[in-house]
Specification:
Distance between the termini: 70 Å
Number of helices: 5
Low-confidence stretches: 313-335, 361-380, 396-400
Radius of gyration: 37 Å
Number of strands: 22
CATH architecture of the largest domain: Sandwich
Shape: elongated
Largest sheet: 6 strands, mixed
Order of helices and strands: EEEEEEEEEEEHEEEEEEEEEEEHHHH
Oligomer: single chain
CATH class of the largest domain: Mainly Beta
Length: 400
């Protein structure tokens, strides 16, 4: 539909391919073009561009002050992350500029700040970035075109804090109404704190069931969204992946026997935003019949930079050592046996039959020192003496 001689008006970003939009991070340059197509000559007052990035949270809470009195309290907060303005077209003289019919492209570019927050869409808030173009024409309504883009801040898990193993222990006295009470304990450990989507979390856990009924261990990856506004706090918990282990019989102590937990495609952790946080945790629980669950949470960080091979090797060695120390001497492996003595393997008869690698020594030859030094002295000539002056100077001087 032709609207006031403007057929198309859009914002396009460089680097976009079919079905995929470019992704940016802090410090990079965002470039693109404002595309304007006219069916006829048109007068344009100005063409402006604005880039914005905001973290916004909002929720409401209903409270009752009596039998017939209720009120709703609203919480809202906004943090400006990016603000950039530019003028792409302005008249040199006069109030307007006349553009001929056809397609017109107006390039633009701007640099993102170094510190940004990853784009996110949550239950009570979001982090969004967009580029908006505004076309002003006399006697016509203002035309606007908007283009959103994604920002993902790099979060490297190859740091000592995120490579450290995480462990915990919980216990609970189960009191089912139909049987005597019993003590149920749970111990769990993971080799590191930082992971990336697609990785597998190797769960090391042990359940001690003191009840008279079997219990069922489970493991789940939980995402916690925290929204902060005007001193209030709102949280949203969601299970993004879960697995179940094998039941532990009554009076048994069994390690975790179940599938590994794979991290699905997720938004990375958001740790440094004033109004919105995204955190993850590994929740290991035990279902106890007739009683509430026994839960143990281990904090996780979902990053964007995968684990380096060297960090993985050092982390695995350190985590295995820490695991053995944390879980007591009962988990330490038995010390290896000492190697046998040389005389127990090689007897005197075998030694006598083995020929010597050195030629027999002449009794008439008298050597000062050991036989090894004599061989080394004549086989290996000493290096020449060091001199600051070249004994064989070149006739041509070297030039750079």
């Amino acid at each position: 539909m032709v609207f006031g001689q403007v057929k198309a008006f859009a914002v396009r970003l460089d680097g976009a391919s079919a079905g995929a939009e470019p992704v940016f991070s802090g410090g990079q340059v965002v470039a693109g073009r404002v595309w304007l197509e006219l069916t006829g000559a048109a007068r344009v007052g100005a063409l402006g561009l604005r880039a914005r990035g905001r973290a916004h949270v909002h929720w409401t809470e209903s409270r009752s002050a009596g039998a017939s009195t209720a009120y709703t309290h609203s919480y809202s907060e906004c943090v400006e992350l990016l603000s950039h303005r530019a003028t792409l077209l302005a008249p040199d003289t006069g109030a307007t500029t006349t553009l001929p019919a056809g397609r017109h492209e107006f390039p633009f570019s701007f640099q993102l700040p170094l510190a940004l927050v990853t784009s996110f869409e949550g239950k009570h808030g979001h982090v969004r970035y967009c580029v908006k173009a505004t076309l002003h024409r006399p006697w016509f309504p203002v035309r606007r075109a908007r283009k959103a883009f994604t920002v993902i801040e790099p979060l490297d898990i190859n740091t000592p804090a995120l490579l450290a193993p995480q462990a915990g222990t919980r216990e609970k006295v189960a009191r089912p109404w139909y049987c005597a009470r019993g003590l149920v304990s749970l111990s769990a450990k993971i080799d590191r704190k930082g992971f990336t989507p697609g990785e597998v979390i190797a769960i090391v856990a042990e359940v001690d069931n003191g009840c008279v009924r079997p219990v069922l261990p489970r493991a789940a990856l939980v995402q916690t969204q925290t929204f902060v506004a005007r001193g209030a706090r709102k949280q949203k918990h969601a299970v993004v992946a879960s697995v179940a282990g094998e039941p532990v019989g009554a009076g048994q102590r069994t390690p975790w026997r179940g599938p590994a937990l794979r991290i699905p495609p997720l938004a990375p952790s958001i740790l440094h935003c004033r109004v919105l946080h995204v955190a993850y945790s590994l929740q290991v629980s035990v279902d106890i019949p007739g009683a509430s669950k026994l839960r143990l949470e281990l904090p996780l960080v979902v990053g964007t930079v995968p684990l380096h091979p060297f960090s993985s090797r050092s982390s695995s060695v350190g985590s295995q050592a820490a695991f053995l120390l944390d879980w007591g001497p009962g988990a330490l492996p038995e010390p290896p046996e000492a190697p046998p003595e040389y005389t127990d393997v090689v007897t005197e008869e075998v030694t006598a039959t083995v020929p010597s690698p050195f030629p027999p020594q002449d009794p008439g030859l008298c050597l000062d020192g050991s036989y090894f030094l004599y061989i080394q002295e004549f086989r290996l000539r000493p290096p020449p003496l060091y001199s600051e002056e070249d004994p064989n100077p070149s006739s041509e001087a070297m030039t750079c």
